[in-house]
Amino acid sequence: MRILGISLGAIEAIITLNIVVFVLTLIDESFFVLFTLVPRYVLVEPWTLITSMFTHAGFNHLLFNIIALFFLGTYLERLIGENRFLRVYFIGGLAGGVLAVLTAYVGFTDVSIGVVGASGAIFAIAAALAILRPNLRIFIFPIPFPMPLYIAVFGFMLIMSFQEGISWAGHLGGLAVGVIYGNMFKNRGIGGSTKQHGQRFY
Fold first, then answer.
1. pLDDT of 8-19, one tens digit each?
2. Domain containing 74 — which CATH number?
3. How does pLDDT run across 91-100, given as a tens digit for each residue?
4. 90 near 121, Cβ under 8 Å?
């Protein structure tokens, strides 16, 4: 993948785009408004289903997603390859956005509240990896002990999705895509069987 003539790997390119968009939104707030997915306006601003995946509400929001993408995404990409990884990432992110819109229109959330962040895509890669490597042990800050990936993803991270200010629908949409792809890869023998090393996930 090439950005501005520079050859980057898939994860490096995604991280770079996230940082570039974040800087743009700091320089001019109108970019944040332009890129944010607002369910009420999705039919007239359909591009926000994509741009919202690269837009973040603050530095901590960006940092957490970048770190999660780096550790979990790097591992998953090694197992399934770059093209499949990109498919999981972007379809997971889109599914998160679509579910956020649908749940808003049926009354679960406010149609006027904007949705931003790569969390739907992150949940997709996390769930796919949890299916392929459920017993991979990782650290999640601030918990001081390692836990199996499937518990971290389907337990701790899922519970965190229902905190105030977090788009639980966006997370669940990505999670569902990750589960589907993870099982598909597993059934097709994609990802193989490798020694599971511990990872630090902050």
1. 789 999 999 999
2. 1.20.1540.10
3. 999 999 999 9
4. yes
